[in-house]
Amino acid sequence: MGDGMRRKPVVIGLAVVAIAGTAAAIYLLRPRPEWTKNGIATLRSLWIGSLPPLPPDPSNTVADDPRALTLGQRLFFDPRLSVTGKVACASCHQPPLLFQDGRPLAQGVGTTTRKTMAVAGTAYSPWLFWDGRKDSQWAQALGPLESPVEHGGTRTQYAHVMARYYRADYEALFGPLPRLSDTRRFPASAGPVADLAARAAFARIRATAAERARGKAAEAHRQQALALARRVGMAVHPAGTRSRFNWDGAALDGDTEAYVILHEAAHFVLAPPERRRLVDFGLGAGPDTTDRAAADRAARLPIVERDEDEAAASLLGILWEAALGQPALASLLDQNWLEGLDRSAPAHFTAVLRRLQLLGVVEAAQPETREIR
Hints:
With about 375 residues, the chain is an all-alpha fold. The protein is about 45% helix and about 0% strand. The chain is built from 15 helices and no strands. The longest helix has 28 residues. It is flat.
């Protein structure tokens, strides 16, 4: 009886193996459909390698020069062709991802409003960009390099990059570069400002005072700033409270200058809920924080993200100052917005403004409306 019971699992197991083997044999020996010649031809026609040679391009005399190909490839992967020194063409057009980036919206120095396009085979396309607004590769390339949310740089900045890092390669193809040492003709960063919103925002800031208010005017500005802070949802410590932090994770230190209050209110608006509970928003010590060690221990953001958040809060606070008729220009100067030794100041201003626009917080700073959203 016991031996019979022990043999049953063995018999069942052999039966299962036999059935599986029979099924596998049937599958392997079944007639398989074959590709027809027409089907194979159709597939081959869709392969990029089946495209015919490009016709000569009278607008590009180096199109077939292998030296130009090598130079173009190096430029494609060079992040120095951006305002931050961190964004290359290949940052979005990644070869392993079919020259896309796998994101719903492209991410350059800011976030764009459209998905990255694949660029393989674009030389054959009569129209470029999703909306077909460019009709040649050279025209298309002019846009992203100076876009405030893509590369964010300027044309003279790129000329200096070429002169410093690619002079020999460039001159072998196109002849001598001009003397870029004449900074009056070729400043470190210059180009047309096509962003009308950035131009209008800067004009509003420039129309304000370059000196801080004093006395009664300064106190009136502080009260305006406190009212704004409360409207965006910030709690404020009672007057006279001795706080060790600008923002202690629960309430704002209101015994400070108006521009500092607006700067902290901007951080509050930009911070996600979890960072609003942290000392100085998890960014490290604020300007009036006395317990700097505790604030620095509470820091959560990496340095790069911290710098981006600081820039956004700085500009949003300055825009609020301008909207309230306060000395926004003084803050712009104090916070180094006009310094651009290692980046284009106008392009950086435009890129940060664009980020604020995409977040939907800029409208609160317009002079025609004081509503905080």
